[in-house]
Amino acid sequence: MSLKKIFVAILFAALISLNTCYAAETLAMTETDSEGWLLAISKDDSGDNFFVVYNYKTEQGALLPYEERLYNFYLNKSPIIFIMGVANSPRDVDQDLGKWSDDGLIHFLPVYSDFEYENGRVIPETYPTSCNGLSASHYQAIIKSPYHIKLATVFLTKMPELHAAVESKGITLP
Predict the structure, then answer these.
(1) What's the CA gap between 154 and 164, in Å, rounded?
(2) Angle at 154 between CA 148 and CA 155, to 5 degrees
(3) Is the Cβ–Cβ distance between 73 and 159 less than 8 Å?
(4) Contact at 8 Å (CB) between 14 and 63?
């Protein structure tokens, strides 16, 4: 199965669980790393863009709605705050963070992370934090799940590479 079809599959799985049916097209993606992780930007049939953090080996991942501030986060000062929609998130040490979809299939997990940008690389802090609910004045709860930490880390560290992929394809993003 092609990587493009995999992205469409995860988008459909996540969006179907939200009782939404979208068609999606992958616009650009990074190379996969040795663990199977990559970052992509996709567009649905209504023209909305999404970031897709995906592991092709485990067929798991997360979606983030496209925002220019997220796309360009590393060009600005630390910290960054974003919300990941994690499909089939494990009910584990982070289950009380963020908010769950009504059907319990999507975990909307806010992430707060400091980072440094050096020599073309994003270096995130080791343990990002979160909160109960979708926003807070302070994000003081440490994200403990290795899976959630990995999703956030992949999103942060692969963004410069995604920029290069978007630029190489001549794509203009809003």
Answers:
(1) 16
(2) 90
(3) yes
(4) yes
Q: Round to whole Å and give the CA distance between 80 and 147.
A: 19
pLDDT by 10s per residue, the chain, length 174: 344 444 444 554 554 444 444 457 889 999 999 999 999 999 887 788 989 998 888 878 899 999 999 999 999 988 999 999 998 788 899 999 999 988 888 899 999 999 999 999 999 988 999 999 988 899 999 999 999 999 999 999 999 999 999 999 999 998
Element at 67 (helix H, strand E): none
Long-range contacts, 132-136 (Cβ 8 Å, 24+): 132/96, 132/97, 132/98, 133/98, 133/99, 134/83, 134/98, 134/99, 134/108, 134/110, 135/110, 136/110
β-strand pairing of 115-118 with 121-124: antiparallel
Using DSSP's 3-state secondary structure scheme, residue 24 falls into strand
153 phi and psi angles, rounded to 5 deg: -65, -45
- Among all chains, which residue has been given the structure tokens 């980072």? 115
